[in-house]
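Just scan my protein:

——
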Amino acid sequence: MRIDMHFLGAAQNVTGSRYCLDSNGFRFLVDCGLYQEREFRKRNWDPFPVACGSVDAVLLTHAHIDHCGLLPKLVRDGYSGPIYCTSATADIVKIMLLDSAKLQEEDAAYKKRRHEREGRHGPYPELPLYTTDDAEACFPLLRPVEYRQPVEVGKGVNAVFHDAGHVFGSAMLRVSVKQKGAERILLFSGDMGRWDRPILKDPTVFEEGDYIVTESTYGDRLHEGSETIAEELAEIINSTLEAGGNVIVPSFALERAQEVLYYLNQLLMEGRIPRIRVFLDSPMAVRITDVFEQNPEFYDKEMKRLVRSGNSPFDFPGLSLVKTVDESKAINEVLEGAMIIAGSGMCTGGRIKHHLRQHISRPQSTVLFVGYQAVGTLGRQIVEGAKEVRIFGENHPVRARIDQIQGFSAHADRDDLWRWLTGLKGPPRQVFITHGEPETAHSYAGFVRDKTGWKVSVPGYKERAVLD
């Protein structure tokens, strides 16, 4: 028995997820993600470490760009095999890749204009990493599969997709590899969610696995409890309405926006907040919400009950799904009594910046953060207490109330990850800790090692492992 595994991404960092495996002369990838961290972005431009045409299949865990965003480059450079994923992921991937390609094209055009003005050339090509045509070329290769249904992906290799509880359609993978009468079970956590979250089913727990590849994004900490989200949200909304302002929510288009709508719907049904106008001002979030509504089989029991009873969180009184630019501009006339949910989640672009410009200096309004804010982003500046911020080239004093609800995390924390691992009835041959910053990944690796005595490692970028 020999399986070669090559760690091509998410190795001691949290983006660019990509693992290449070779067995029985068959080569497949688990995920093919874009690097989004500034210090690693140049890797997106590097040639693939293996010939793209030599890859026989791709198994995709979910639709976040750091897991699927390099597929257009893979296909353009020669890949023509199937891309296996859940049906919801297939639908959302199309939305995400087209948006990513548009951003690549816009960024390249901007750099070219800037360099021409400055009379110089930058260190990277003034061409997009890939185009919308490259993104669309991926779509015919998408092969939707159902949870818990075995798929023969290649010679001696079978895969089963299971609920990951992370985002809509996300999956963990159980991969079975057979050689000469022997079998090895490989488990890939993908990005793992949390138990008892709205809309989604809980993460799947496995009883057996020989080799485990697990994320560790929050492997060194515990999340604040999600049981207070509704209470915190109600207080923020009620106090802002009393002050005569609006609640401005920077939000990611996939999962976070829909989860906020879920809690708003709950508060309205329970009478804990008054009727409020809610604007989902993100074309991408609106399209993704359509995917949610078209795939009710992915809902958990409570969400199915809400929909059956006519209380869908995506169709409550006062909710407006904003699509056009004119509709978005019209929101500026609404100065009180509303919640405006818009992207991007870290305030780095998109329609949220227009709403921030309108409200960041209004003491009556609240800017509510419901997601992580990376270092260097406008969102991070605001949550860290900046007295003044620059938006569209102009300085704006920060006078609005700034708040943050910490319980909105789609990633498992240390105890969630540990709960998943300890579902195993026996020790695995090896555990690989990935998708975490170096300090975090090593911390979680030490935690698991101390608790179990198992063989645990934290692979580095381009490191190889032989599984026997």
